[in-house]
Amino acid sequence: MIQRPKYLNQLVNSRWNGFPKIITGIRRCGKSFLLKELFYDYLISSGEKPESIIILELDDAKNSKYRNPLELNHHILELTKDKRKKFFLFLDEIQRVYTIVNPDLTEGKIILAKDSDREIVSFVDVVLGLSHEKNIDLYVTGSNSKMLSSDIVTEFRDKATEIHMAPLSFKEYFDYESTKTNNRQGKQEIFYDYMLHGGMPLAVLKPLDEKEKYLKSLFETTYLKDIVERKKIRKTEALDELCTILSDSTGELLNSEKIANTFISKKHEKIDKETVTSYIDAFLDAFIINQVRRYDLKGRNFINSTRKYYFCDTGLRNAKLDFMYSDEGHLLETIVYNELVYNGYNVNIGSFDSVEKDKNGKSVRKNYEIDFMATKGTKKLYLQIADNISETKTKNREIRPFVLLNDQIKKILIINRPVKEMLDENGFTVIGVVDFLLNLE
Predict the structure, then answer these.
(1) Are 2 and 178 in contact (CB under 8 A)?
(2) What is the pTM of this model?
(3) Are 287 and 26 in contact (CB under 8 A)?
(4) How is 173-235 classified by DSSP, letter by letter?
(5) What is the pLDDT of residue 142?
(6) Distance CA 191, CA 387 (A)
(7) Confidence of residue 34 (pLDDT cuts 50, 70, 90)
């Protein structure tokens, strides 16, 4: 069994806090498993009786009548009407509850609401209403297709505890692989497997020869289909091509105009910047990609002209490219970025200008970038990620921004080699990527 200690602890620590717990995250990252297996087992082992835990799976046909929000609300209140008892309530796949026009306006008839209807009853009303019941501790999971519209996020803001899940971090993946009795791989071999196939839980559990087929199918039949349905997209080929461009351009500085131009050069079809922005927002909403903004380290403000995009999972990114393209540098960046976020860091790209003399002695302004500036409370790190620094020229290029900044912030050079943490002649930390990821906590 794959353990998810970070998220389990968040659920444990948020028990009976007066708010519904909303578990969000990309489809198939293990939200239902976290709730119905790991958290359920924890509650039982800590002394809770099975009858005090109510699990309602709304994607099950036998519960179809409870997809009516009013029926769902009535059913739960009936199950929990004994106010002397306390209940843990798990509502799984809440997005299956449909939205209806307020029956007070339809003479009691149940009529599905249109997007233009304003007087409605939805699962949001049910969740917020049940959260006021003192004997119910409520936990909710749902897919992205309907759970994450901006309106719903706004309605839950400050009224719920969000627990956001991601695919397995490298640390979670490594801990699981290390428990397998037949796994004789070393740390670096485990890391390369993770770099290629990522940490989607079901992909991790599948035999090696089935992983790639599963990841490709997951992308096409689940994620892209979700986005097409939710955004009502007609040009599905354009959406698919845009996703390929983002996959191919992982870790590069991009904006909507640059992406639109790349699309035109590849497809010989025009696409406007607004459409590109809309499609990118859809990928962000579905948690498929994350965007990283640039931060001027000297001017101390964000630079909005360009940003970088990283996939939430390297296996999904590689699946979009049919596992035929492997840029280890960008994959390294993706994994480091995801692990930093998993461990609670805010991550941006560091940028600054420096005035230097060219070979003719003329003053010129040069721009430098640091792969990541990571902050967590009062802790701040500057990180450069390199595949190999065996050549002096390569190492000097990587650490040049560190040298120019010359401040007291810890500077770390992460390399794709099995290197224990050490200090170089400049006082910068050099460490292998596997050791960095496993000891980040």
Answers:
(1) no
(2) 0.92
(3) yes
(4) HHHHHHH-TT----HHHHHHHHHHH---HHHHHS-HHHHHHHHHHHIIIIIHHHHHHHHT-S-
(5) 83
(6) 14
(7) very high
